[in-house]
Amino acid sequence: MPNLSKVRVRFAPSPTGNLHIGGLRAAIFNWLFARHNNGTFIIRIEDTDKERSTKKFQDSIIDSLAWMQLVSDEPLYIQSSFEDKHKKYLQKLLIAGKAYKCYCSELELQNRLGENCRYDQCCRERDCSSFVGSYVIRFKVPDHIKQVKFTDLIRGEIVIDRDQIDDFIIARSDGSPVYNFVVVVDDAEMRINYVIRGEEHLGNTVKQILLYDAFEFTQPEWAHLPLILSPDGGKLSKRDGAVSVIEYKDAGYLPDALLNYLVRLGWSYGDQEIFTKEELIKLFTLEGVGKSGAIFDIEKLNWLNGVYLRDTDSAALLDYIETTMKVPLQQELNTWNRDILLQAITIYKERTRTLCGLIDELRLLYKGSIVVDAQLSDKWVVHETALHIGRLVNLLESLSLWDADLIKELITSYCKQAHLKLPAVAQPVRLALIGTTESPSVFQLLFLLGKNESLKRLRSFVESLG
C-alpha cells in the first residue's frame, strides 16, 4: 500500500569526505520528491564513524548543498548528538533478548571462520555472564526468518534469503552503536517515511528492515537509485567526473546546470533534456527513475552548462563570478568600465562552457599573449602581412568613432581593395591582439580592447615582424 501520510525524506551524508556526485544526486532526488509532494526535506549528518568524521568535511558538505540551494526544511540534525537515545534503544534490544554480547575477537573469528564466512553464532546462546573483556553487540536474527522480502519503489519486489544474513554487529566494542542501528532509530524518531538512496545501500536495507521489525516501528517506503557509471560502464573514477561537488563549483559550473544534469542521470521525462527547477518540481516522480546504471558523460555536462551560461544574464554572471567564485574580475580588468566588461561577457559566453573558461578568455583578451603561437604564426604570417597590418593601423587610427560595425566596414573594405580574403587579414590581427586565432569576431575583439590598446598591440606586432 502507498504511504498516505505527509512525505518526510532525509539526506544523510557521512562527514568522512567531501560531497561527491552520487551523494549530490541522492540529495537532489530527495529534495525534488519532497517538493513535488509538498513534503519535508531534512538534512542529517551521520557521524557515527568517529575516527573518520571531521568538522571540516561536515562544513564542506553543508556548503556544497547550500551552493546547490538544497536547504533543509528543519534545523540541521547531527547524529552523534542523539547518542544517549541510541544507547537506550540498544538496551531495549538486549533486555528483550533480541540482541546479545559477542566476546569473539576479530582474530578468533578469522582463525575460526576465515575471511568471508558468516558469523557462526558462537555467542548467541552462550552463557557469557562470567566473561570479562571487550565485546560487541550483535542483533539476533529471529530463527523463523527464512527470507527478507520488501517492495522497492524503483526495483519492485526484492527477496534476500536467510543464508545471506548473519547476526550482524549493532554496537562496537567501545559501546557506540553502528550506522545500521542508529539510522533506524533516527529515521523512526524523525518520522521519515520514504528512504531514497543509492542501490549500494541494498545490503544495509535488509539489516534495517530486521531492526524495524524488532522495534515494531513502521517501515518507510524504500527506493534505491541506480548507480552512476563511467562511460565504459565501470565504476566512476576521478578521470570520468567522480570529483567533489566543490570542485565543480570551483571549475565554474552553474548549480542549476549541474542539478539539471544529475536529475537526468537515472530519471527521464520523455526526450526532454533541459528543465527549469519549477518544471522538475512539477514533473518529478519515482516512477520516472530507471533501474539501470546511468552513464556520466562530462561532455554532455559541459554542453548543458554552456546552454545555461548563454541563457544567464551577463550582469548575473559577473555577480556570480565575483561573489560566489570570489574572483575580483572588475578589479583585475580595471581599465575596462563595467559596460565594456559586460559586453565582453556577452560575447564570450557564447563560445565557452564553464565560467573558468570564460574568465580565462577574458583575461587573455585583456592582457594579450606575451608569446604568439609559432605554429599559427607560420601559417598566417606571410611577407606582406606587416605591410597590410601597418596600413590597417593607419586606417583604424583615423576612425573618430570606435564602433564594431564601423571597424567591420573598414576592414572588409580594405580586404576588398587589396584583393585579400578576410582571414588573410583577420587571423594575423587576432594573433597580434591575443596571440591565438581562436576568438570571437575580430571586429568585436578590436572594439572590446578599445582604440588605444588595439593600436598599441597591432603596432607592437608589426615591429616584431621586422
Write structural notes for this entry:
There is one protein chain. With 466 residues, this protein is mainly alpha-helical. Among the domains are: 83-171, Glutamyl-tRNA Synthetase, Domain 3 (Glutamyl-tRNA Synthetase, domain 3, Alpha-Beta Complex), CATH 3.90.800.10; 313-365; 368-466, Arc Repressor Mutant, subunit A (Orthogonal Bundle), CATH 1.10.10. Helix content is 47%, strand content 11%. The chain contains 20 helices and twelve strands. The strands form five sheets. A three-stranded parallel sheet has the order 1-2-3. A three-stranded antiparallel sheet has the order 4-5-8. A hairpin with a 3-residue loop joins strand 6 and strand 7 (156-161). The protein is elongated.
Mind telling me the C-alpha Rg? 31 Å
CATH class value of one domain: Mainly Alpha
CATH hierarchy: architecture of one domain: Orthogonal Bundle
Helix content: 40-55%
> Strand order of the main beta sheet, please?
1-2-3
Distance between the termini: 84 Å
Major pleated sheet: 3 strands, parallel
Averaged pLDDT, please?
92
Share of β-strand residues: 5-15%
Number of helices: 20
Shape: elongated
Which descriptors apply to this entry?
20 helices, Glutamyl-tRNA Synthetase, domain 3, elongated, three-stranded antiparallel sheet, three-stranded parallel sheet, 466 residues, mainly alpha, Arc Repressor Mutant, subunit A
Task: Record the SSE blueprint.
Elements: E1 8-11, H1 21-36, E2 40-45, H2 55-67, E3 77-78, H3 83-95, E4 99-102, H4 106-113, E5 136-139, E6 147-152, E7 156-161, E8 169-171, H5 179-189, E9 194-198, H6 202-215, E10 221-225, E11 228-229, H7 245-250, H8 255-263, H9 277-283, E12 294-295, H10 298-311, H11 314-323, H12 329-332, H13 338-348, H14 355-367, H15 374-380, H16 385-397, H17 404-417, H18 422-434, H19 442-449, H20 451-464
Parallel strand pairs: 1-2, 2-3, 9-10, 11-12
Antiparallel strand pairs: 4-5, 5-8, 6-7
Helix pairs in contact: 1-9, 5-6, 8-10, 11-13, 16-20, 17-19, 18-20
